[in-house]
Structures are given as structure tokens and as C-alpha cells.
Amino acid sequence: MSKPIWIKHAAQLATLASEGKGPRSKEAMSELGLIEDGSMWIEEGMIKAVGTTNEFEERYADRVNEAEVVDATDHLVTPGLVDPHTHVVYGGSREREFEMRLEGASYMDIMNAGGGIHATTRMTREALEEELIEQTTLRLDSFLAHGVTTVEGKSGYGMNLETELKQLRVMKKLQEQHAIDLVPTFMGAHAVPAEYKGREDEFVDQLINEMLPVVAEEKLAEFNDVFCEKGVFTPEQTERILDAGKRFGLIPKIHADEIESYGGAELAAKIGSISAEHLLKASDAGIKAMAKAGTIACLLPATALYLREEAAAGRKMIDEGVAVAISTDCNPGSSPTTSMPLVMNLACISMRLTPAEALTAATYNAACAIKREEKVGSLEVGKQADIVLWNVKNYQELQYLFGVNHVKAVWKKGVKVV
Ligand SMILES: N=CN[C@@H](CCC(=O)O)C(=O)O
Ligand SMILES: [Zn+2]
Fold this sequence. Notes:
Blueprint: E1 5-14, E2 34-43, E3 46-52, H1 53-59, E4 68-71, E5 76-79, E6 81-83, H2 95-102, H3 107-112, H4 117-126, H5 129-145, E7 148-154, H6 161-177, E8 181-189, H7 200-217, E9 223-228, H8 235-247, E10 251-256, H9 264-271, E11 275-278, H10 284-293, E12 296-299, H11 301-306, H12 314-320, E13 324-326, H13 340-351, H14 355-362, H15 364-369, E14 387-390, H16 395-400, E15 407-412, E16 415-416
Parallel strand pairs: 1-4, 1-5, 6-7, 7-8, 8-9, 9-10, 10-11, 11-12, 12-13
Antiparallel strand pairs: 1-2, 2-3, 5-14, 14-15, 15-16
Helix pairs in contact: 5-6, 6-7, 7-8, 9-10, 13-14
Bound molecules: N-(iminomethyl)-L-glutamic acid (NIG) and zinc ion.
């Protein structure tokens, strides 16, 4: 049995204590449950107590010798960050497209010419399972180094049964092998594969009748996501796919209104999608509908920056009552990054979230977007000891000193991994 850990004298402990209340919106996004000169007691991978160091000196006076003591003087301590939207399992890379976009080509031009998602699909179909495991492990290591302890991952670079299953099985294996918790999403509807060009509805039928049943039968995914975008899947096709997924117990998510305003936010609200992703071009009516339905907005400011597009209206969404989460969108085309700290910085700079809101969006609300709020996303008794010790004194400094990785140490389920 490992020693208990006592993290003491934290300059600031941002607990995000939420008492299971569910996604935070409006003012609740600013409530970080701060404790100054904070302490935490960790045992068997779980958080056993959270409070001030003063309280702990008395409470644990007779156990201090058995514990490993971590002095967090002058350091901020937060929950492990949660990334609720990634495409982390893929083959190959697309640096040439980066150059092409700088030369003037658009994301959709490249995709329609057989590049983009189609290029990664070809490379992922060709890759051996072991190669995908090796490449994805490096990305997950990098996530951990940036303070991220839980990552959602999507399939969607197969778009045939064989490769979709290969991606999902890679995630299952990595969930067993890697310290990070991986949450799997089926995204067979990421694009219409080249071999189905002009026969889009046939592909939707295949997805519903042949892929979804196997994914569900093998319990390889918890969520079902669709790229609802002009020229990809229509709102009607999206609804059919997500409805079918629901019948197999898969929870809907939608890539909505990324490139054009297409009714994606409205659809997410209408069908009870847990979240809608991107939302760069979401309409005002869509934002209002999401607030009313309690749909979480999963915003991806690094993607907007990388595509040189204006970021989503994060400030407005919060003011309208939408619960906002943020994510890297880690993928080989529109956001090849694993840095959630950078994403928090960008959430402030390009979407005008406050530093406190950005931290909530990257922890508790992110956990809610992947239904992990009972285990991670806040520092509360009974939760997993997923904890980050930062080289800054407070949460404002974390967002202010931007573009730098301030991680000093990371514990995953009570084990020091960084
Ligand atoms: N927009 C759709 N899917 C991904 C990008 C995938 C890719 O370009 O490979 C996204 O969320 O940004
Ligand atoms: Zn995505």
C-alpha cells in the first residue's frame, strides 16, 4: 500500500467544489471554491480531505509521520485538467496543409480536394494498431505534461467498420495501459468517405445499420458525434444518426456551426445533445436554445486561431446562460496541439472569458461534457486524486502568463506522473 500524500501550504487551492450540481453557467462559472494556505490529504488514489493547512495540522497531527508531505508554498493547486473533445488517435500528419492554408486555401477547399479528414483517413486505414498505439501514447504523454488527466477521444478517421473499430480498440487498450483516463466517442460520421461520394444517404444507412450495432455490442464508445456542416452531414442526416445512436445507448454530441451557420446549435438543443462543439458561427437563436435546453458549449479557441477564424462568442454564450467547456480539439489538421493551458489562455484572450471562467471551462464543466463530473474536474472528498501543482501563485497568473507550460507536478489517481 502506498503512503498517504499531504499537499500543504498551497498558496491557492482552486477546488471547484460543486457538490454534484452539474454544469455551471452564468456567475457559477466564476466560483472556484478557493482556499488560501490550502491542504489536501490523498489516500489510495482518492481525495480524503480538503481544507486549510491550519485545520490539517490538528486533524492529522498523529499521522504526519506516515505521509509523504508536499510543500506547495507559493504554488497554485487545481484539479487535473479535462479535455472533452479530441481526435487524438490518428495516423500520419498534415504539415503540408498548414502551408497550403497560409498560401490561401481554405479548410473546406482542402477537404473537398481529397485532403483534410480524407487524407488522415487514408493514413489511419493504412496504420497498424501498434503504430497508432505508439503515436497516440506520445500525444497522451504530452497531455499529461500539460496538466491534462482526462481526455475524450473520437474515432472518425476510418469511416469504414474495420478502421473505426481499430481506432476505438486502440483507445480501449490505451485506457488500460496509460495513466490518462480516456473517454471514447464514435464519430463514424466525420465525413462522407471518398468511395461514397454522391451516395451520402447510403453511407448514413451503412453507419446506422452496420457500424453502430457493432460499436455498441463491443461497448467501444459512450458518445456518438456527427460533423453537421454544409457539404458534410445535413441536420436531417445528423438527427437520424444521433437518434439511432441513442437507441444503442450512445449519448449525442454535434460538431455544429463550425464553418457556416447551419442550425447545428438549434439541433443540439432540440435533440438533447449533451454538448455542441465549435459553434464559431452559431446563431443567436441557437445560443438561446442551448441555454434553455442546458446544452454545454464545447468551445475550441485553438482551432479558430489555427484556421485564422474569429473565435466563438464565448463571452456572449456565458452571459446568455450557456454552460461553457473548452478543449484543444487535438487533431492533425485544424488544431495539432495538446496544450490545455494554451487553450485556457486563448479562451480569455480571444473569447473574453475571465481567468476564473476559463479554469471552470477546462475542469468541472469539461468533466460534465463527458459525464465524468462525479469522478474528476474538482477537488472534493471522494473524487479521484487527479491534481496539478502549478509554477504560479494564483489562477489569474496562470491565465496571464500565456503560452508557457506552468506545470510543476501532476498526480493521477494519487500517483505522481509528472
Ligand atoms: N471539424 C471537424 N473535425 C475536426 C478536424 C478534423 C481534421 O481536420 O482532421 C475538428 O473538430 O476540428
Ligand atoms: Zn472535433
